[in-house]
Design goal:
Blueprint: H1 5-26, E1 32-33, E2 38-39, H2 48-53, H3 55-66, H4 71-84, E3 89-90, E4 93-95, E5 101-103, H5 112-125, E6 130-136, H6 139-142, H7 156-170, E7 173-174, H8 178-184, H9 200-213, E8 222-231, H10 234-239, E9 247-254, E10 264-267, E11 272-274, E12 299-303, E13 311-316, H11 324-327, E14 333-337, H12 346-352, E15 357-363, H13 364-369, H14 372-377
Parallel strand pairs: 6-7, 6-15, 13-14, 13-15
Antiparallel strand pairs: 1-2, 3-4, 4-5, 8-9, 10-11, 10-12, 12-14
Length: 380
């Protein structure tokens, strides 16, 4: 019995695919990728509602991609090959001028319209709440002049403009920090060179701008202190590029303790309480950015003795972590939710915590590709 080349190729493909699928099913699910410095998708739970609305399919797709056997090895080998070949880009990271590494710009994903619809639905359901949206531009947008001369990235400003225009019609107040960042970019290091986050200085400038938009008087008198001088962030890990310059991590503390209100922070997942926004022990970890509040928690609350009748629901990604200490000076209570890990009722959170304000705070790249917010708001 003779087999054609096509049949042999098909059989080999099926065998290899079967081996990898069995590898996924039999191996222990990894929770974190050291090489990419990010949390990986775990095995999704099945329910009829999740299957009907597509959530199960989407999470399964992410699960297979993230738990692919030897994934970190393949990612690492590709990075090494790109670096050895002298390329300016590796795994979506560009080697830029002044020792910057920058993520490519992401266009809104195929499910993004669902997120926009969910946000409009949320505002209709909660018209009585003051709702704000701060969508932080990414470094490659703000520092376009530092990109390699041959690189032309997608137009993130157009994506942000179109999004802000749509949600403003529903009643959201958009906090657009792009002009402020453009004015400050040559005076202040707004983003890390080796990491995709904004720096503490960038977060502080964003806070001062947001405070005015949200009806607060900014709290002056913060001093910045360098707590780590050799930080190598997510872009360094993801790309394999050695840019020759480590980052510094800075934390902000009040000049005058008398003018500063201490808070009590309760993490629902670990059931731990603390009065410290900065977890200095995490500076020894690979992901030293977790000095700002620790790892990404599904839910935590911040209680302050602040003389205010306003309570904030902060729905966010990790960009918000370095800005939260400043916001705590203006609210009696802040409830912090990361939709990527939170699966309970937002409506119940709003009711039980007497929420008056809602702030959505994301970086644009994460927001345009993430579908967890839509899933969470659907039941709000």
């Amino acid at each position: 019995m003779k087999f054609s080349t096509e049949k042999i190729t098909a059989i080999i493909f099926i065998l290899v695919l079967g081996i990898f699928l069995f590898g996924i099913l039999l191996s222990d699910n990894r929770k974190f990728s050291e090489s990419e410095n990010r949390v990986l998708q775990g095995k999704p739970s099945f329910s009829v509602s999740k299957y009907i609305d597509g959530r199960f399919e989407r999470k399964t797709e992410d699960y297979v991609n993230d738990q692919f056997p030897f994934r970190d090895l393949f990612v690492g080998l590709k990075s090494v090959a790109d670096v050895l070949a002298g390329k300016l880009e590796a795994n979506g990271v560009y080697r830029c001028k002044d020792n910057y590494l920058m993520d490519e710009i992401s266009a809104p994903g195929k499910y993004f319209a669902n997120t926009e619809n969910a946000l409009n639905f949320f505002k209709r359901k909660h018209k009585h709440l003051a709702t704000y949206f701060l969508l932080a531009p990414n470094a490659a947008n703000v520092y376009q002049d530092k990109l390699p001369n041959t690189v032309r990235l997608k137009d993130q400003n157009r994506y942000i403009d179109e999004f802000y225009k749509k949600i403003a019609r529903s009643g959201y107040k958009c906090i657009d920090i792009r002009r402020k960042f453009a004015a400050e970019k040559d005076n202040v290091q707004l983003y890390y060179r080796t990491d995709h986050h904004w720096t503490s200085d960038g977060a502080y400038i964003a806070y001062k701008y947001a405070a005015k938009a949200m009806g607060f008087t900014e709290i002056p008198g913060y001093d910045g202190y360098v707590v780590k001088k050799d930080f190598k962030g997510t872009l360094y890990s993801k790309s394999g590029f050695v840019n020759g310059l480590d980052d510094k991590i800075k934390i902000f503390l009040p000049e005058n303790k008398k003018n500063h209100i201490d808070s009590v922070i309760y993490y629902a997942d670990t059931k731990k309480k603390t009065t410290n926004f900065y977890q200095l022990k995490n500076l020894k970890k690979k992901d030293a950015y977790t000095v700002f509040g620790g790892s990404n928690h599904p839910l935590y609350t911040i209680q302050t003795p602040c003389d205010s009748k306003r309570n904030l629901l902060l729905i966010k990604d990790s960009y918000a972590n370095s800005m939260i200490p400043f916001l705590s000076q203006h609210y009696k209570r802040i409830v912090v939710v990361d939709p990527r890990y939170f699966y309970d009722s937002v409506k119940d959170l709003i009711t039980s915590n007497g929420i008056t304000d809602v702030l959505f705070l994301y970086n644009a790249n994460t927001f345009f590709l993430d579908n967890s917010l839509e899933m969470m708001l659907r039941d709000s």
